[in-house]
From TrEMBL:
It comes from the Eukaryota. InterPro entries: CENP-V/GFA, Mss4-like_sf. Pfam families: GFA. One of its GO terms (molecular function) is metal ion binding. Residues 25-148 form the CENP-V/GFA domain. This is CENP-V/GFA domain-containing protein. It comes from Aureobasidium pullulans (Black yeast). Keywords: Lyase, Metal-binding, Zinc. The lineage of its organism: Eukaryota, Fungi, Dikarya, Ascomycota, Pezizomycotina.
Length: 176
């Protein structure tokens, strides 16, 4: 493990103790109160995707969200679990299913989501990963979903599978 602050790329939050190695990386909220360790390889890393659904737009305050799906059993809280607060919703893109959103109480960063429809899985926001270089390689999206809701000025990601509605891993080559 090595710190990356001295390697010449921006640190965009108040915490400076993020790291990554071959197997894992940290994800930290903006103020640094909450830090997670996520897997970078299977079986813990399930997929990486962009979502254009209305839920992701609203909860993330953007036109789409970049996400990392991991097995919940492989996600570690290294600090600040007591700083997380939740907001549960049942009016989601999949009617009558609940989605629980985990935010830092101090700065409001959405760290991850867990849904009734996805037992055993946690959906993290790629933007919380401390080593920003990972987004260019190992955490680059494999698929874009709900592309029918993509804003017109946003273009498909080169090399990413395109899914109308929610992607089903078994329908997209290269997705576990």
């Amino acid at each position: 493990m090595s710190s990356f602050n001295d390697q010449g790329f921006p640190v965009v939050h108040l915490s400076d103790d993020g790291w990554s190695n071959e197997d894992e990386a940290t994800a930290t909220c903006f103020c640094g109160a909450v830090q997670l360790v996520l897997p970078l390889q299977k079986p813990g890393l399930v997929n990486r995707h962009i979502c254009h659904c209305t839920d992701c737009r609203k909860i993330g305050s953007a036109f789409y969200q970049s996400n990392i799906t991991v097995l919940s059993t492989h996600l570690k809280h290294t600090r600040g679990s007591e700083h997380l607060t939740t907001f549960s919703e049942t009016k989601t893109i999949r009617a009558s299913t609940s989605m629980e959103n985990y935010f830092c109480k101090t700065c409001g960063t959405l760290m991850y989501r867990r849904g009734e429809r996805f037992p055993g899985l946690t959906i993290l926001r790629t933007g919380t990963v401390d080593d920003l270089r990972l987004a260019e390689g190992r955490l680059r999206p494999q698929v874009e979903q709900f592309i029918e809701r993509r804003v017109g000025w946003s273009k498909p990601i080169e090399g990413a599978a395109q899914a109308v509605g929610m992607h089903r891993p078994e329908d997209i080559e290269g997705i576990p």
